[in-house]
Amino acid sequence: MLSITDLEKSYSAKKILNGVNLEIKKGETLGFIGANGAGKTTTLNIITGILDSENGKVEINGLTKEDGIEYKKQFFFIPDTINVFNNVSGFDWIRFLMNLYGNDDKERLGKYINRFGMQESIKKPMGSYSYGMMHKVSLIAAFTINPPIIIMDEPLNGLDPNAVLVFKGLIKQYVEMGGTVFFSTHLLDVAEKICNTVAILKEGKIILHDEIQNIIGESSLESTFMEAQVYEGKTSVN
Prior knowledge:
- By secondary structure, the protein is α/β, with parallel strands linked by helices.
- Helices cover 38% and strands 25% of the residues.
- The chain has helices at residues 40-47, 69-72, 90-100, 106-115, 131-145, 161-176, 188-194, 212-216, 221-230, 232-235, and strands at 2-11, 14-24, 29-33, 55-60, 75-78, 149-153, 180-184, 197-202, 205-211.
- The strands form 2 sheets. A 6-stranded mixed sheet has the order 5-6-7-3-8-9, with helices on both faces. A 3-stranded antiparallel sheet has the order 2-1-4, with helices on one face.
- Helix 3 (90-100) runs parallel beside helix 5 and helix 4 (106-115) runs antiparallel to helix 5 (131-145).
- Keywords: ATP-binding, Nucleotide-binding, Transport.
- GO terms for molecular function: ATP binding; ATP hydrolysis activity.
């Protein structure tokens, strides 16, 4: 599904990614976690084509960035910071994105607008939206377009409790229908509840990647994460 091989990236003299290797299979919900500065956002930006890497390779369903638009149609990306034209409505922005992906399912769009409670706000200019509303609109677009993989950078930031519950339910449905989810988060309790696999990134390298049950045992993801930061050798898997 998604294959990352020997990914390297530096900013000036500082090495951010130091040989990231990761395989994500169809139907996985993978939580990508790590301390600030570990390289999570840089990894996502390279996968989605926002940044170039100095070394390494990324493939999604056998396609690479060199395959252009066909590669980009394999995923929908929700960044932590969403930049749009302030005078464009949420509805028009989603319809624009749907056209890019060749999707014209208005009924599906209406369903997700209702699920996230955006019926009254969806046709207002996005410049009037709160941070949480921007994330709701992005999630509506993602689930409406229904790509093979949804990639998200801190997708729960700004969401109200009801929207978080909707998000969890829709992620479950999406994966059950064959979708794949790859998202970074600082909310370890959320990752523990909705992910079936977790990858921990430390100083630009994956130090732990396994199914959630194997990782936490009778402990918690929070305890495992803290232990991995201190005792990398003890918790690493190859």
